[in-house]
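User: I've been trying to design a sequence by hand for this structure and keep getting stuck. Would you show me what you'd pick, starting by listing the structure so we're on the same page?

Assistant: Good idea, let's start from the same input. This is the structure you sent:
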């Protein structure tokens, strides 16, 4: 009985934390949008961007338009996704829309400089969306559409499709309104880029890792130094063969933190200046010494 009660309490705490973060993300997003982006005619992509285009033509509130356009999307998605996702995304969409319109009532303008509006607004919007995405929810709109498309055509890349849609909305905005808005469209692209980088930072962190492949005649000495010496990282030894010489070689595979790259390079150079080294970024590394696979969002 006590175990059941404890499980219910922990689930309630997780849900409370999730929805509090959605509220926080919605508030931050609304502040960035209404105080920085909207006054400088820096538009969003997706459904919010379409709402801004309609608002510029008709004067209807952006938040209300966003809710109205999202209603059929949520009805279509009802049977395709889990209830937790749907409820979280519905709350995220409603709160961002409501807070955007509440912020509009203040008539506050943080800056009239479009570059500042694009950068700071992009940071705040990205932070808000990143917080909402981090708990498994969305702000509705094109996120749902793309998820539905990928169920039918799973080879579509989520980020690429989202970028195409956002750029199309910005082009539509510039084409429908006056010629002066071409500059707004360019500032909108800057804000979009900044938002994307902030979202990635919140979801994947700043401390990216690096995958290293090392081919050397002194592989044993390198393995010893990497595993128990200055770098102190695990390695995997792959069997390789030179295509020209047909000589068997060991390929050392290891993953290191970015701040360990200079030390690894010095180590390899001190042991074998003729070594062949390949280094490539790795955003998601889980396991001993790195991230916890149980915490993957």
């Amino acid at each position: 009985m006590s175990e059941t009660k404890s499980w219910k309490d922990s689930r309630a705490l997780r849900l409370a934390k999730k929805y509090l973060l959605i509220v926080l993300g919605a508030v931050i997003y609304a502040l960035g949008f209404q105080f920085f982006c909207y006054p400088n005619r820096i538009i969003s992509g997706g459904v919010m961007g379409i709402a801004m285009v309609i608002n510029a033509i008709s004067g209807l509130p952006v938040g209300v338009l966003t809710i109205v356009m999202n209603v059929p999307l949520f009805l279509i998605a009802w049977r395709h996704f889990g209830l937790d996702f749907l409820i979280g995304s519905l709350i995220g969409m409603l709160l961002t829309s409501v807070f955007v319109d509440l912020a509009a009532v203040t008539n506050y303008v943080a800056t009239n400089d479009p570059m500042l509006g694009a950068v700071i607004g992009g940071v705040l919007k990205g932070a808000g969306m990143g917080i909402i995405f981090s708990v498994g929810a969305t702000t509705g709109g094109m996120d749902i559409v793309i998820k539905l498309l990928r169920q039918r055509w799973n080879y579509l890349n989520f980020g690429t499709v989202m970028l195409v849609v956002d750029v199309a909305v910005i082009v539509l905005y510039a084409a429908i309104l006056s010629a002066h808005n071409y500059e707004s469209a360019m500032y909108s692209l800057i804000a979009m880029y900044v938002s994307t980088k902030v979202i990635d930072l919140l979801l994947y962190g700043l401390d990216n890792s690096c995958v290293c492949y090392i081919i050397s005649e002194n592989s044993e000495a390198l393995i010893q130094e990497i595993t128990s010496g200055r770098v102190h990282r695990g390695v995997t030894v792959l069997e390789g063969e030179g295509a020209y010489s047909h000589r068997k070689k060991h390929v050392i595979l290891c993953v290191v933190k970015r701040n360990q790259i200079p030390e690894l390079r010095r180590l390899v150079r001190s042991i074998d200046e003729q070594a062949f080294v390949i280094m490539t970024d790795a955003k998601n590394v889980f396991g001993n010494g790195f991230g916890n696979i149980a915490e993957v969002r």
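That's my pick for every position. To get oriented when you compare it with your attempt: The mean pLDDT is 79. The two ends are 31 Å apart (CA to CA).
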